[in-house]
């Protein structure tokens, strides 16, 4: 009986790992239409990536994804829920901001605000609707 439980537990772990690997591969396979676009001059981290939905016509509503990490760590690469937003017809902008090791609060808020303003002001260049912008993170 103990061997069966171990084999079952092993099978569950392998299945979870496989599902996770497939999800990560799906997100990694999606390439941004605009990559490492500078939105500010305070840091080399003031960049963003824009992904456009293949299922929507322009101008597309935009979701701005702010990565987690408590303002101490993280990166815009492999944004969470990217494939879900794109499949629903949303464009996605994944942004980086200065981390707390580089600049103290409220620099991170300033960076996010600048990124939102930059995307709003340059919406037509990216094919996004400046009147339909949301933020998630």
Any chance you could write out the topology, listing elements then pairs?
Layout: H1 2-29, E1 34-38, E2 47-51, E3 60-66, H2 82-87, E4 91-95, H3 107-121, H4 123-126, E5 128-136
Parallel strand pairs: 3-4, 3-5
Antiparallel strand pairs: 1-2, 2-4
What does this structure look like?
There is one protein chain. The protein has helices spanning 2-29, 82-87, 107-121, 123-126; strands at residues 34-38, 47-51, 60-66, 91-95, 128-136. The protein is an alpha/beta fold and 137 residues long. Strands 1-2-4-3-5 form a five-stranded mixed β-sheet. Helix 2 (82-87) links the parallel strand 3 and strand 4. The longest helix is centred in the first third of the chain and has 28 residues, at 2-29. The chain is flat and about 65 Å long.
């Amino acid at each position: 009986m103990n061997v069966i439980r171990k084999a079952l537990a092993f099978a569950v772990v392998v299945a979870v790992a496989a599902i996770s690997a497939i999800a990560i591969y799906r997100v990694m396979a999606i390439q941004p239409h605009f990559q490492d676009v500078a939105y500010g001059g305070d840091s080399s981290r003031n960049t963003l990536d824009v992904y456009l939905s293949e299922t929507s016509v322009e101008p597309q509503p935009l979701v701005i994804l702010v990565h987690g990490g408590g303002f101490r760590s993280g990166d815009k690469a492999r944004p969470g829920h990217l494939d879900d937003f794109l499949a629903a017809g949303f464009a996605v902008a994944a942004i980086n901001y200065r981390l707390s090791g580089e600049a103290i609060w409220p620099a991170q808020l300033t960076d996010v605000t600048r990124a939102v303003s930059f995307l709003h002001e340059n919406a037509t260049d990216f094919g996004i609707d400046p009147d339909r912008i949301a933020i998630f993170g």
